Amino acid sequence: MAAYAPAGTQRTAAEASRQVGSSVSFEGVSVAYRGVVVMKPLTLNVEAGEILALIGPSGSGKTTALRAVAGFVRPATGRIRIGNTDVTDMPPYERGLAMVVQNYALFPHMRVEQNVAFGLNAQGAPRSLTADRVEDALRTVGMSNYAKRYPRELSGGQQQRVAIARALAVRPRVLLLDEPLSALDAQIRRAMVEELAKLHRTLPHLTVLYVTHDQSEALTLADKIAIMKDGVLNAHGPTAELYRRPPNRFAAEFLGRANILPATMDDNGATSGFARVRVGSASVLAAASMPSGAEACLLCIRPQHLALQPEGSDVNTLTGTLKDVHWQGELTHLVLDVADTQVRVVVTRPPVLPPAGSAMQIHFSPSDASLIPDDAHA
Ligand code: ADP
Question: 3-state class of 169 per DSSP?
Fold first, then answer.
């Protein structure tokens, strides 16, 4: 982990900006390693106080974007701004950032409190200020009782909390988190995600860039999500909106399970925001933000938005053949064949189901379904 904060008189400015938060802007930023472009020009704005999750498959350029903000890689093109300051040519330690990485990177020979004080000591902060900040940071992450321990006397989750306390102690303008939970086992990871959410409620002005390949962490934590694919920004938007109305197939499938059905445009109601499409022999209404004129498109519906009983007057209905049923405790997954496409339905309390091979109707609200471009015909 590296933790940086402006030294000397600048510290006051960093603290002041922490109160109001600092935005982060990528303006046409591209990165190349030894002449190979791994991040194509990226333009993206992270608002002050926002948690932005950068997600995408391994190798898509998430860490590279984060390292460019931190100042560990130099962009080939473009500018990076933190607040109103152009930091593109600034060394890392002047940027007022802190970064936490996957493997904690605590100093094994130092006690917890010494680890947390490290960045402040490096800046030459007065001893009383350091003591206050260390206490404050440890309290924020719920580790006050562990100040005298060594890292080896802590669990993985506790070590990562100390790493976060060390980052917070320097009062960064922006916190960069690079897969901070991926070394932890699933149960602790879930608990830590909730703790990070709580942490941000305690520090609502802190801007956070959170790199993860785990979409559930992003959905739980982030105000906005940016999806990277092959070094290109594939989608960006408020978390719930992106989940509900993904702009393309990759985004739809990366954010969670999605049923994607081939459809043909019947009536592109460009003004109403809804369009009527044909799926097999059925005619259904769905939210449409696609450019008009595309005849072939895809209908996207999340499994939990499909119901076995019709609800409401404007409900859409599809008919399929029941193929399989998987009971998973709280949820039951049904697999149907609809217009030659496998469709998954997730319900909490299924009625008595007919045998496999039977025809079944499934229903959904137009506002729970969205139309996306058909990549094959794009
Ligand atoms: P992600 O964080 O999404 O997994 P990265 O940003 O780490 O992806 O990597 C993006 C691409 O850049 C990958 O193809 C990776 O192999 C390459 N890459 C990353 N770091 C270096 C480096 N120091 N030198 C050369 N190539 C690198």
Answer: helix
100 touches 176 (CB < 8 A) = yes
Q: Measure the N-to-C terminal CA separation of the chain; round to a whole number of Å.
A: 43
Query: pTM, whole model, 2 decimals?
Result: 0.88
CA distances from 241 to 57, 225, 368 (A): 21, 10, 11
- Burial of 330 from C-beta contacts in 10 A (0-12 / 13-18 / 19+): exposed
Report the separation in Å between the CA atom of 184 and the middle of ligand 1, taken as the mean of its atom positions.
22
Q: Is the dihedral of CA 56, 141, 97, 221 positive or negative?
A: positive
359, two tokens: 């025809």
Q: Encoding tokens for residue 331?
A: 């949820």
Q: Which residues contact 75 (CB under 8 A, 6 or more apart)?
A: 29, 30, 31, 68, 88
Which of 210, 197, 187 lies closest to 102, judged by CA? 210
Neighbours of 177 (CB within 10 A): 27
Q: Ligand 1 mean position to 212 CA, how many Å?
A: 14
pLDDT tens-digit series, residues 84-116: 999 999 999 899 899 998 876 899 999 999 999
Which atom belonging to ligand 1 lies closest to the Cα atom of 67? 6
Distance CA(179)–CA(167), nearest Å, equals 15
CA 215 to centroid of ligand 1, rounded, Å = 20
Q: Which amino acid is at 93?
A: Y
Higher pLDDT, 42 or 100: 42
Please report, for the chain, the start and end positions of each structural domain, with discontinuous segments joined by +.
13-244, 257-377
Pocket, ligand 1, Cβ cutoff 6 A: 33, 38, 56, 58-64
Which amino acid appears at position 280 of this protein?
G
Residue 354 DSSP code: P
285 vs 277: CA distance, rounded Å: 6
Q: How confident is the model at residue 272 (pLDDT cuts 50, 70, 90)?
A: confident
CATH 1.10.238.10 is the classification of domain 13-244: no
CATH fold group of domain 257-377 = OB fold (Dihydrolipoamide Acetyltransferase, E2P) (2.40.50)
CB 97 within 8 A of CB 167: no
